[in-house]
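Quick log. Single chain, no ligands specified.
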Amino acid sequence: MSLRPPADPRALAAFVARAIVGLTFFMAGWWKVFTVGAVTHARSGFVEPYADTWLPAWALWATGTAVPYVELVGGGLLLVGWLRWPAALALGGVLILVTFGHLLAEPLFAFNAHVLPRIILLVVALALFHEDRWSVDRWRAPRQ
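-> predicted structure:
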């Protein structure tokens, strides 16, 4: 029995981080789109809580309805490893948006429960982007 890992540990770390963060976003998006509904999500999570802020209502409605779809599509793409870079950019934007919103509502918001784990996993997946052997992007890339 060999103690040597069967594959490059960086490739495995990239895959695990990408798959978990992709699954996390995908399932959150699925729930928001198909169970809660994007409009209800926008109303309860964006419009009503931030109605008394300087943010315009149209922007709250637009972002509140778009975020569930970005999470669903971006998470699904990241999960399978297809169009990883645009998906990661979109999901990173969601994380920035959510962090901004929470901090606007509560300046000392503890974002360690939902936001921080996703940020860490997304950063790990991006840091190991070129090591990720088990993605659709890598399989579709020209052989060198």
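The mean pLDDT is 93.
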